[in-house]
Amino acid sequence: MSRTAAISRKTFETDVSVSIDLDGTGSVAVSTGVGFYDHMLTAFGHHGLFDLEVTTDGDLHVDEHHTVEDTALVLGSAIADALGDRVGIRRYGSATIPMDEAVATAVVDIGGRPYAVIDLPFTTERLGSLGTQMIPHALEAFARTAGCTLNLSATGTNDHHIAEAAFKALAYAVRAAVELDPRRQGLASTKGAT
Question: What is the extent of the structural domain holding 129?
Answer without folding.
Answer: 4-178
